[in-house]
Amino acid sequence: MRILQQTTNLGKCIICTQQVSNDNEIWFNEASVTYKEKIICGICLVNLNGASKEAMVNFDSKEDMDSKERMMAQWGVYVDPDTGKIVSKGIRKAKA
User: Fold this and answer.
1) Residue 19 maps to a domain
2) Is residue 44 situated within a structural domain?
3) Rounded to whole angstroms, how far apart are CA atoms 90 and 3?
4) Which residue range(s) make up the domain with 56?
5) Would 21 be classed as within a structural domain?
6) DSSP state of 13
7) CA-CA distances (angstroms) from residue 88 to 61, 65, 67, 92, 95?
8) Does some domain include residue 82?
9) Number of domains the chain is built from
10) What are 79's strand-pairing partners?
11) Cβ(37)–Cβ(31) under 8 Å?
């Protein structure tokens, strides 16, 4: 097996295009992550931290809604499970 030297360049970050090396003395090189064969440096991970938490909260709140609420929020109608009919709330039919 081949051992990498201490300062070998591993590639560039896909977000900020900063060189990521095998040097563990610099914190953003040590904190870099490989995701789906792409490298993300530690600086970008820190900057994405707030956005990822916000996205997770939004995702969890969408999952907490039951199917009726989710259908009402997205389309304004839902399917009544007892009758199988489409029910609309707050939408009035136009007079012909």
Assistant:
1) yes
2) yes
3) 67
4) 9-64
5) yes
6) B
7) 23, 18, 14, 9, 17
8) no
9) 1
10) 86
11) no
